Amino acid sequence: MQKPSKKTSQSSTDKTKDLIPDTENAEQQQLSTNQGTLINDNQNSLKAGNRGPTLMEDFIFREKIMHFDHERIPERIVHARGAGAHGHFELYKSMKQYTKAAFLNDTSKKTPVFVRFSTVAGSRGSTDLARDVRGFAVKFYTDEGNYDLVGNNMPVFFIQDAIKFPDLIHAAKGEPDNEIPQAATAHDTFWDFISLMPESMHMIMWAMSDRAIPRSFSRMEGFGVHTFRFINENKVSTFVKFHWKPLLGVHSVAWDEAQKISGKDPDFHRRDLWEAIEEGLYPEWELGVQLVPEEKEFDFGFDLLDPTKIIPEELVPVEIIGKLTLTKNPENFFAETEQVAFHPGHLVPGIDFTNDPLLQGRLFSYTDTQLSRLGSANFHEIPINRPIAPIHNNQRDGHMRHMINSGKTSYQPNSIRGGCPFQTTIQQGGFASHAEHIDAPKIRDRSKSFFDHFSQATLFFNSQSQPEKNHIIKALRFELGKVVLKDIQNRMLGLLSLVNSELANGVAEGLGMPVPEKPLYPINESIPADMVVEDYQPISVNSATDKSQALSMEFTIKNTIKGRKIALIAGNGVDGVALNAIKERLSAEKALVKIVSSNLGTINTNENNIIKVDFNFLTTSSVLFDAAFVFDNSNPSFLHQTEVLEFIKEAYTHCKPIAIPFGLIDRPELTNIKVFAEEDMGVILIKDGDTNGVADSFIEAVANHRFWERETF
Ligand code: HDD
Fold it and tell me: Which one, of 259, 172, 247, lies nearest residue 213 by Cα?
């Protein structure tokens, strides 16, 4: 029996209702073949005698095995592993002045969405906690057709032109001779490519930062990355960059923790999303836009068409215009999450592209890939991809066609059907591309305005807190430390030295080699020989701002413990009243609280009541929790068990908030614990069993997420 979910009426949208007729429910139903013939024996194939060979005429066996043999489809070439959910988008503020997109005009409208989060490099079965970019793809089922915002959790990209995408991905994935490593960039081919691609340096800063190991999908930002256009009723275009800002703040885990989670629960992010929705703790993001009028296009020191650049929020503030809420898990992973097909080219009137060469190339790739992945030009008919807006056109037939197009005509113009389906005027909602004037030679070239590869990488590094900087240095020590060829390490140190000397020296120290004196390799072999190569060497532009607060996670939202997983560690003889009080307090703040003890089953309280244990030290681990609250009890040996101390020590090492009985203060495992307790760094000492007395400070510490200053570098 499936566990009943706590889903509320909020969970249904016009899209989820649209899926109902396609949803099968086997409850109280009889087993049948695909032809509807009822089956009376699903355990034995048809044989010539009960010890004889299976007969070919066993159509029930043949159908079952044939279908099974064909269950797999190719996984996505990138973003293969993911998790999705349904929800809706509400608009706070009409954007009518800038865009005619109806779902961004009407504040009374709730637009259904399906969102898929993903890692990029690993295959479908890889771990959620790989150091990687996360996909953040949103399909808006608007009344004017589907609009897809296919973004990432980082606002820039590795390359400036889509023609390099296959090279980037080939270099990042497992090496072609042995397909090693899985879901990891810490290997020669990736860093070989990057060391020859100085334009990737800004993205490398993001990818080596803690953003690449998020605590959960619900605690990461999303970005449309490219500059897009809003187009209003008067055909006026405004450049726009999209941001998703999580209401739970932007939080990450520690790298050591990420690696351990990958072993203990490789589905950690999927599970977190699933459980949050089942518990009614719906993840939420606000949609923000940065708007730049056309006439300001060239006011920045960088090119708005360059996808390796952000517009610092200090230059153009992010205006919050709406909210996305995820309220319902898929009914079926394959039917929805696997078969959903996103495409940056799924547009509605009022939104348009720019000439960003990365975006332009994407416009080809996404439909093309669905053809091999989903197998037919009719992939738009798969229920999850089908718009809620009506579809009428003269496209016909093809593999797996579902729609039954009635009538005699499938062409236009026609007179037999009075010209139907007819074209719509722009005023009536027909899509018209922005009439950008272009008068230019056909040329394979890149604008010189794309050649500032370092200033925003430097801006990012300089904007980090000291622990965040240390994490970037350590991540690069790890990644480049796994590289075998010294030349590659050397080239990378050269590039890093152009970003920041603290960074380059820190990484070099870890690699045990010097930063090269001549940092730049002759990198631009890709420039055609008849061009003056010097002209295309990286240039450095003074950034308009030295630091940008929005780039550091230090300043993120830290006022909620909603959805936090908290371990209450207790053994027999625990003060049951105190434990229940803390449990209720934390649950009231919407934390997910679990009792962890030595054995499964139950523990007896000091008043001989029984408390159910959720996990023992074998079935869970400190890395799967955000914080630990440790209770004293009448059995002193409990707290000194290796498993208990290991649990506390690990939570402590990963800079998590912990509340522990005062008696543990001298444990050798917990060096500096006294100092951190005194300095208010997430270590809370429970004196005389007064657990209630520390509840407030514990909640505050959990909301703070981590106390990275406790780390030693
Ligand atoms: Fe892409 C999938 C995001 C550049 C080609 N991409 C894919 C997904 C996301 C992104 C989130 C997963 C969608 C899903 O959940 O199904 N991709 C990006 C972003 C990019 C980007 C933010 C740069 C700003 N992508 C990019 C380029 C190309 C592709 C330059 C090719 C020229 N991407 C693909 C693809 C995928 C894909 C091969 C694989 C599966 C799919 O499309 O449906 O077409």
Answer: 259
